[in-house]
Every structure is written in C-alpha cells, then in structure tokens.
C-alpha cells in the first residue's frame, strides 16, 4: 500500500519537473486495495462520483442511505488540510442513484504531488463510477459574471499542465488509459445541454453561464497583471483545482461534468481597495450552495447511465 508519509519524504528532493522516482508512484494495486476496502465497507455501488469544492461539501449531507468514511480511516487515502474541506468520503443516493462524494479535495498548493491529488479519481473508477462531477469555487474574469453565479465548465486551461506538471507524468498504466489521451471534448456535451435545460426549468438562467475555467497553482490569488492576462486569454473563471482530476478522469474513460461557483470577481484594476480572501470565498459558496445542490441532484436524477467509454 502506498505510504504517503514515505512517499512525500521521497518526493521532497525532487522538483516536479525533474525525474520523479518512478518506483514510488502509486501502482494499480494501490488504487485497487483502497477500492476493495471501500467496497467491503459499503453496500453502495456508485455510478456517479462527485468532488465538492471549497465550501460546497453540504451536498454530501443531502445523500440518502449514507455510509461515510473520514479520509484518515481509508487505507491509502491522502488527507485534506484546507478549511472548508471536511475530509470525508460519503456514499449514498441522490434521486435513487448511488453516488460517492468527496467532501473535501486535495490541492497541489497543499504540497501534494498531482498523482496524490488525483488518487481518489482512479479509486472511483475501480469502484465502478462512470461519471465524475467536479465542483469548485472560482474567481470570475468574464464581464457580466457576479459573485454567486454558477458557471457550467465548457473547457479548461490547465496552466500547471501546460508547463509540464501532469498527474499522468511517469510510466503510463495502460489498464487505466492511453499514453496520449485526447482532451478536446473533455466536458461532456450532452450533460452540459441537460444541465442548461434544468437551469431553465429551475428559473436560474439569469445566474448560470457556460465558460472556460483556468487552473493556476495558487495558493496566492492573482496580481492585477495576471488577472488582465487571464482575461485576454479568454478565461472566464480561475481557480486552483479541478484540471488534474478531470485529466485523470478522462484518461480512464470517465464522463466528466464540471461546475464553478463564482465566489468573487478577480481584481483587474489598481484603483479601489478590493481584496479577495478565502473566508469571503467560503461565505459566498455557502450562500449559493443550495442552488448548486439542486442542480446537481436534478442532473444526477436525469442523466443516462451505462454509456461511457471503458478501457
Ligand atoms: O477546491 P476549490 O478549487 O473549490 O478551492 C478554491 C481554490 C482554493 O483552494 C480556494 C481559494 O479560496 O478555493
Ligand atoms: N486563483 C483563484 N482561485 C480562486 N478561488 C476562488 N476565488 C479565486 C480567485 O479569485 N482566484
């Protein structure tokens, strides 16, 4: 079993762009062992996996017939350290459909390697999950977005990925997916259309957009010049997560749907006193998390199942 304390110790001498010590990367058996432990501790057989972003963990509390496990009790699972991320894996039903929900995710800025931040996604795959729903808190660049709005993610720009930081670095495990996965249609179009339909029926169209999410490394928020750059590049919302999870999910054939909750406008002017902070991010997440929960619940209830790619 992968021992994350020993793993972190081994990794500390390596910058992420240097040679990663291949022998210390998690292997298929490590993911399988964690999945087998979970399958032997719950009767749920989830087809949908959900990753809750900052302040968005309340969704997990709405699952029916729950079995929940603190990350610390799950063999091989990493631990989360960020406020607003409870650190529990919750199994249960939404609209009668079996789901597994990460109440708290892992971020690169916590000091985790990317294969560690995405460890749960491959465990989901081995549990039988077919569709991954990712959520996050994000700052908006797009004109017309307001704090409290929801963005259906159409595509992403993975800045760490563009500079060589990928959870898929190292030998490829063909049991999970191909060496060179395509990413051109990574956010499932049918699910995006279905979500827009639900949004209209819920009367939320005014608050919901479709746009491009960019992942930056964090943990700092953007300088004004960085914000201007992101805006010019066509980024609608920026955050510090999601892209690596989506990459690993797509690599192993999971269908992906993503939502950003806009918690703040990214400051793009030197005038004014506006300063974003994590507490404000959590506050706004809580304010709108109910609409986000309803949207996800409806989506899970209406999505078709058993139709994704298997390797
Ligand atoms: O886990 P997510 O991406 O929702 O968390 C966002 C990005 C940072 O971790 C944090 C900043 O407030 O919120
Ligand atoms: N990078 C980044 N992440 C966020 N998460 C929530 N708000 C923000 C933001 O403004 N910038």
From TrEMBL:
<comment type="similarity">
    <text>Belongs to the PNP/MTAP phosphorylase family.</text>
</comment>
<feature type="binding site">
    <location>
        <position position="137"/>
    </location>
    <ligand>
        <name>phosphate</name>
    </ligand>
</feature>
<feature type="binding site">
    <location>
        <position position="85"/>
    </location>
    <ligand>
        <name>phosphate</name>
    </ligand>
</feature>
<comment type="pathway">
    <text>Purine metabolism; purine nucleoside salvage.</text>
</comment>
<feature type="binding site">
    <location>
        <position position="264"/>
    </location>
    <ligand>
        <name>a purine D-ribonucleoside</name>
    </ligand>
</feature>
<dbReference type="GO" id="GO:0006166">
    <property type="term" value="P:purine ribonucleoside salvage"/>
</dbReference>
<comment type="function">
    <text>The purine nucleoside phosphorylases catalyze the phosphorolytic breakdown of the N-glycosidic bond in the beta-(deoxy)ribonucleoside molecules, with the formation of the corresponding free purine bases and pentose-1-phosphate.</text>
</comment>
<keyword id="KW-0808">Transferase</keyword>
<dbReference type="InterPro" id="IPR011270">
    <property type="entry name" value="Pur_Nuc_Pase_Ino/Guo-sp"/>
</dbReference>
<feature type="binding site">
    <location>
        <position position="222"/>
    </location>
    <ligand>
        <name>a purine D-ribonucleoside</name>
    </ligand>
</feature>
<dbReference type="InterPro" id="IPR035994">
    <property type="entry name" value="Nucleoside_phosphorylase_sf"/>
</dbReference>
<protein>
    <recommendedName>
        <fullName>Purine nucleoside phosphorylase</fullName>
        <ecNumber>2.4.2.1</ecNumber>
    </recommendedName>
</protein>
<dbReference type="GO" id="GO:0004731">
    <property type="term" value="F:purine-nucleoside phosphorylase activity"/>
</dbReference>
<feature type="binding site">
    <location>
        <begin position="105"/>
        <end position="107"/>
    </location>
    <ligand>
        <name>phosphate</name>
    </ligand>
</feature>
<feature type="domain" description="Nucleoside phosphorylase">
    <location>
        <begin position="48"/>
        <end position="299"/>
    </location>
</feature>
<dbReference type="InterPro" id="IPR018099">
    <property type="entry name" value="Purine_phosphorylase-2_CS"/>
</dbReference>
<comment type="function">
    <text>Catalyzes the phosphorolytic breakdown of the N-glycosidic bond in the beta-(deoxy)ribonucleoside molecules, with the formation of the corresponding free purine bases and pentose-1-phosphate. Preferentially acts on 6-oxopurine nucleosides including inosine and guanosine.</text>
</comment>
<dbReference type="InterPro" id="IPR000845">
    <property type="entry name" value="Nucleoside_phosphorylase_d"/>
</dbReference>
<comment type="subunit">
    <text>Homotrimer.</text>
</comment>
<keyword id="KW-0660">Purine salvage</keyword>
<dbReference type="GO" id="GO:0005737">
    <property type="term" value="C:cytoplasm"/>
</dbReference>
<feature type="binding site">
    <location>
        <position position="241"/>
    </location>
    <ligand>
        <name>phosphate</name>
    </ligand>
</feature>
<dbReference type="Pfam" id="PF01048">
    <property type="entry name" value="PNP_UDP_1"/>
</dbReference>
<feature type="binding site">
    <location>
        <position position="54"/>
    </location>
    <ligand>
        <name>phosphate</name>
    </ligand>
</feature>
<keyword id="KW-0328">Glycosyltransferase</keyword>
<dbReference type="InterPro" id="IPR011268">
    <property type="entry name" value="Purine_phosphorylase"/>
</dbReference>
């Amino acid at each position: 079993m992968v021992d994350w304390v020993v793993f972190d110790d081994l990794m500390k001498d390596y910058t992420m762009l240097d040679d990663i010590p291949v022998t210390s990367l998690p292997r298929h058996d490590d993911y399988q062992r964690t999945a087998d432990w979970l399958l032997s501790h719950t009767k749920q057989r989830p087809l949908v996996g959900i990753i809750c972003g900052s302040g968005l963990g309340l969704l997990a509390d709405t699952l029916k017939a729950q079995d929940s496990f603190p990350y610390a009790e799950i063999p091989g699972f990493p631990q989360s350290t960020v406020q607003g991320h409870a650190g529990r894996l919750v199994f249960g039903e939404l609209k009668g459909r079996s789901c597994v929900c990460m109440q708290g995710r892992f971020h690169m800025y916590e000091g985790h390697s990317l294969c560690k931040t995405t460890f749960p996604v491959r465990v989901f795959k081995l549990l039988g999950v077919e569709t991954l729903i990712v959520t996050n808190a994000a700052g908006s660049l797009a004109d017309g977005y307001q704090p409290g709005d929801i963005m259906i993610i159409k595509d992403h720009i993975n800045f760490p990925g563009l500079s060589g930081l990928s959870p898929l670095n190292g030998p490829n495990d063909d049991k999970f997916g191909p060496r060179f996965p395509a990413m051109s249609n990574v956010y499932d179009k049918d699910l995006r259309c279905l979500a827009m339909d639900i949004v209209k029926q819920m009367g939320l169209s005014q608050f919901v957009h479709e746009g491009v999410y960019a992942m930056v490394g964090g943990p700092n928020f953007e300088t004004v010049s960085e914000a201007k750059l992101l805006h010019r590049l066509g980024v609608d919302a920026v955050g510090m997560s999601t892209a690596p999870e989506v990459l690993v999910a797509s690599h192993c054939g999971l269908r992906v749907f993503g939502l950003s909750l806009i918690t703040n406008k990214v400051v793009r002017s030197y005038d004014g006193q506006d300063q974003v902070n994590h507490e404000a991010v959590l506050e706004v997440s809580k304010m709108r998390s109910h609409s986000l929960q309803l949207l996800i619940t409806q989506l899970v209830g209406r999505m078709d199942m058993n139709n994704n790619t298997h390797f």
